[in-house]
Amino acid sequence: MRYIKYELSEKTTVRKFLLSKGYSKRSVEAILSEGFLLNNQLSKKSKNLKAGDKLFVIIRDENIDYEPVRGNLKIIYEDRDTLVISKDPNITVNSKGQISLANNIAYYFKSNNINSKVRFVNRLDMDTSGLILVAKNKYAHAFYQKQIENNEMIKKYIAIVDPNANLDMLYEEKFAYDEKSKSYVVSEDGKTAKTIFKPLKLLKDRTIVECQILTGKTHQIRASLSSLDYPIFGDKLYGSDKNLDRFLLHSYKLSFRNFKDEENIKLVDYPNFISFTEE
């Protein structure tokens, strides 16, 4: 068990203070019902606070919920509540019946005495590489989910498509899952996906495209580029004729406010399948 400490600078209540720090309403109710420390005294229910009071949110130990399996983790950022990893291609995030990224993170948690469940804030397809955000406790997880819901977390990807791709736009379309093709297709009955596309570099044999997702729909970038007749290299499910061992999509930029301190974190992780010096 550990604690997150706050020292008050003005009059307020426990509920109002926690909400002002970005805790979700559900998280605040959980803290009030499960208990917190106010000036080293266990308390429940919202109480009046004054300048100089010390409030401690209790982070209770949890059992790790995946089998720990040793793996190579490329850690890009870490603090007491947050872990950001650059995921390799050809590994699932948390699929059952096979070794996944969740198993590797569980091993890291166990080895470093992080007594927490593995909570992914964002997910990537098996072949997609790049930045994945993991919360080390339920309050941090809710905090980051709230940023996603409010479109405050910036997520950008790099994709490789055919040359001369005219992709400088905000693309908005409705997609629905098609059972026959096992993919997402344009459909009036689907859910709206919004993506900003921007060409980063035009080369003779390919275009390097930046993709910023404004909605969090499954296969959003892959389905959108395919519907624009520019499937991602190697993405055979969505029409690519390139014979690769993965499709070339990488989550390379992630910006968010971190839990507790609310500092602006901006992370960049370039994929190994591009070089901006090549002509």
Automatic annotation (TrEMBL):
<dbReference type="GO" id="GO:0009982">
    <property type="term" value="F:pseudouridine synthase activity"/>
</dbReference>
<protein>
    <recommendedName>
        <fullName>RNA pseudouridylate synthase</fullName>
    </recommendedName>
</protein>
<dbReference type="GO" id="GO:0140098">
    <property type="term" value="F:catalytic activity, acting on RNA"/>
</dbReference>
<dbReference type="GO" id="GO:0003723">
    <property type="term" value="F:RNA binding"/>
</dbReference>
<dbReference type="InterPro" id="IPR006224">
    <property type="entry name" value="PsdUridine_synth_RluA-like_CS"/>
</dbReference>
<comment type="similarity">
    <text>Belongs to the pseudouridine synthase RluA family.</text>
</comment>
<feature type="domain" description="Pseudouridine synthase RsuA/RluA-like">
    <location>
        <begin position="82"/>
        <end position="226"/>
    </location>
</feature>
<keyword id="KW-0413">Isomerase</keyword>
<dbReference type="Pfam" id="PF00849">
    <property type="entry name" value="PseudoU_synth_2"/>
</dbReference>
<dbReference type="InterPro" id="IPR020103">
    <property type="entry name" value="PsdUridine_synth_cat_dom_sf"/>
</dbReference>
<dbReference type="InterPro" id="IPR006145">
    <property type="entry name" value="PsdUridine_synth_RsuA/RluA"/>
</dbReference>
<dbReference type="GO" id="GO:0000455">
    <property type="term" value="P:enzyme-directed rRNA pseudouridine synthesis"/>
</dbReference>
<dbReference type="InterPro" id="IPR050188">
    <property type="entry name" value="RluA_PseudoU_synthase"/>
</dbReference>
